[in-house]
Design a protein that fits this description.
Radius of gyration: 20 Å
Number of strands: 11
Oligomer: single chain
CATH architecture of the largest domain: 3-Layer(aba) Sandwich
Structural class: alpha/beta
Mean pLDDT: 90
Strand content: 15-25%
CATH superfamily of the largest domain: Periplasmic binding protein-like II
Number of helices: 13
Strand order of the largest sheet: 2-1-3-10-4-11
Order of helices and strands: HEHEHEHEEEHHEHEHEHEHHHEH
Helix content: 40-55%
Low-confidence stretches: 1-12
């Protein structure tokens, strides 16, 4: 995408942030936002709680999804208009013909190994150990396999992976002392540390430790910035045909993310009202340590293309068999 087109999109987003939808535009009867129990959903919940999109729709709702299978069903069956999801899932759905278009990337760093051992600093240090792993075949399992393979480790031989349904399930196994290590996404990391009183960092004898920062591993192994274009929001179905609505939603999401970063505990209270497994304090902790920045998909395209390329090289099915084209990023076909 050329500089003029990027500038034009930026101006549209700025205008959308400053003004509501034009009075003559048709108001939607209902707008459904969906997302997981993760940091990427925090702005969506804030948007609903504060009525940020009241000018767009008569009713705005947030519906959580529990696992990737439910996410895919929501996308394919038209049960949501905007869905927070891993970027590779968005690419996979798009390439398989689903009506999905990525709007932004907002989650750039929320994956951590959490361990009872204070001395494990790299993935190789976990060789031979049992690790609780959520979402088999999806994030964060994909990132673990990619980073382990990059340093010559065989996931099937070098680790004992215990797959569970969600990060919250993996967190509960840690807290109940049924496993010693887990790969978690925020805010499940902060929930585990809070539940075991393993915070702040200066505690004399914490039960659990933030171990390997997968974003740092990504940067080290691929000689890139220490951030991963992991998740964002995508437009689903007919909403993709309403650019003025999409610009308005993108701008509201960016504004809500900025507010949540500046008011983490209050934002955490809003999130905890919607997602029972989370506490306000853990959400606030997660916001403080996570790399969160709302970047339009077109602007993040180079980083996404590199990420998708690495996934495709490992297993083309992870991104639907090919790298997504212009339409995925909201650009007209060339």
């Amino acid at each position: 995408m050329g500089a003029h087109r990027l500038l034009g999109r930026a101006l549209v987003l700025a205008a959308a942030l400053l003004a509501p939808l034009a009075a003559h535009a048709e108001k939607l009867p209902r707008l459904v936002l969906g997302g997981p129990s993760a940091a990427v959903s925090t702005p969506l919940i804030h948007m609903v709680e504060t009525g940020a999109l009241a000018d767009l729709a008569e009713q705005v709702a947030f519906i959580p999804w529990r696992d990737p299978d439910q996410l895919r069903a929501m996308a394919l069956e038209g049960k949501a208009d905007v869905l927070a999801m891993p970027t590779n899932v968005a690419a996979n759905l798009h390439n398989r013909g689903a009506p999905v278009m990525l709007m932004n990337v907002s989650t750039w760093g929320v994956l951590w190994m959490v361990s009872r051992s204070p001395d494990k600093k790299t993935l190789a240090d976990f060789r031979g150990e049992e690790i609780a792993m959520p979402f088999r075949g999806d994030m964060p399992d994909i990132m673990f396999q990619l980073l382990a393979g990059k340093q010559g480790l065989d996931v099937r031989k070098d680790f004992r992976l215990r797959y569970v349904a969600s990060p919250v399930d993996a967190m509960q196994l840690l807290v109940m002392r049924r496993v010693d290590h887990a790969l978690l996404a925020e805010p499940a990391v902060s929930m585990a540390l809070r539940k075991t009183k393993s915070f702040p960092i200066g505690l004399v004898a914490p039960e659990l430790h933030r171990s390997v920062d997968l974003q740092q591993e990504w940067g080290r192994l691929f000689a890139r910035s220490t951030r991963i274009p992991q998740a964002g929001i995508a437009a689903v179905g007919k909403l993709r045909e309403r650019p003025e609505v999409l610009a308005r939603i993108e701008a509201a999401y960016a504004a809500s993310l900025a507010w949540c970063k500046a008011n983490a505990l209050e934002c955490g209270r809003m999130v905890a009202k919607r997602i029972d497994a989370l506490s306000p304090e853990a959400v606030a902790d997660a916001i403080a340590v996570s790399q969160l920045e709302a970047v339009p998909a077109a602007v993040a395209r180079e980083e996404l293309a590199f990420f998708f390329g690495e996934l495709h090289g490992r297993n083309p099915a992870l991104v639907g068999g090919k790298l997504p084209g212009d339409a995925f990023y909201g650009a007209p076909a060339r």
